[in-house]
From TrEMBL:
Assigned GO CC terms: cytoplasm
Record's keyword terms, sorted: Cytoplasm, Isomerase
Species, as recorded: Rummeliibacillus stabekisii
Lineage of the species this protein comes from: Bacteria, Bacillati, Bacillota, Bacilli, Bacillales
Keyword Glycosyltransferase assigned: no
Similarity comment: family membership: Belongs to the SpxH family.
Gene: spxH
Main location: cytoplasm
Record protein name field: ClpXP adapter protein SpxH
Amino acid sequence: MNNIQYLSEKPAVSPSLSKPIELYVFIDLLSQGSFELQALIRQLQINYGHYFSMRFVLSTELNSLNSACQRINSCQTQEELVDLSHPVLPSIAVKAAELQGKKAGYRYLTKLQEYTYLNTKNVCQCSTLQEIAYETNLDVEEFQTDFLSVEASRSFQNDLCIAREMEVDEVPSFVFFNENIEDEGLKVSGSYSYEVYEKILEELLGEKLVCQQPPSVEDLFHRFHTFTTKELAAIYQISPSTCERELKKKMLQQKVDRVTYENLSLWRLK
């Protein structure tokens, strides 16, 4: 692969590692490809999450952020804010959700990616971003306050600084660091198959990977909320047709339900 390069040092913002590998994932929330990327990342987390911690880093243009903040500040009423639309607002919304905790932020991010992929509503509009906050069980009043706060904007600006520091100019990009602070980081620009990232993890660890046993379907849904049949089949290493039959049994038992959109079917806990 030509899009792999080494970084000389870790960024100053990098926290101390509690696992052997630290992974930074740089994504564009408005790219429909980020939804497929999410499936790959979740499979890595389920199989090898004991080896790495992970941080999503959002990427867009800083001048767009400045423009968005000016437009938000110019709103005189809540009604004006609801109608506001701007490409940077989804990133600020994710940062506002993260102020309610890392898990809350991740729920919000994955639901936003789902909305982007389905392309049924404008995810750049404040009304849609507020709807996602309701759907992900956030404290909506707190979310609205945080969305307008300096903290959310600064958190997003910090992501932009990380991208510049690591010289990330393409999304998606993965940057891997190991626990030895003196070792170089490894930056992988672009999208590749699951097996490629699996191989990179193995090479960075210098040992054969031990795959974790996936949890029960119910536990998996509690953690990640929605799945496609293809994604679940890959996690449990069964055929899509077998997976479909098992999910339909659970649907008859009223344990899960199926939501069908124009170009996608998703399973979720009932």
